[in-house]
Amino acid sequence: MHTGGHRRPLLRSAAATLALVTLAGGGLLAAPAPARAADTVRGLQWHLDSLRIPEAHKLSRGRGVTVAVIDGGVYAAHPDLRGQVLKGTSLSSAVRADGHADPDREHGHGTAMAGIIAGRGGGPMRLLGIAPEARILPVALGQPREYDIAGGIRWAADAGADVINLSVGTPGDDPQVTEAVQYALGKGAVLVAAAGNRSTNQAVPTPANVPGVLAVGGTARNGSRWSGSVTGPELVLAAPGERIISSVPPPVSPNGYGVGDGTSDAAAIVSGVAALVRSRYPRLDAANVVNRLIRTARDRGAPGRDPEYGFGGVDVLAALTATVPEVDGNPLLTGASPRPGDPDADSPADDSDDGRPAVSFGLADNAPIQLALCLLAVLLAGVVIVVLVVVNRRAARRRVPGGPPGPQPQSPQGSQPR
Question: Where are stretches of biased composition, namely Acidic residues (predicted)?
Answer without folding.
Answer: 343-353
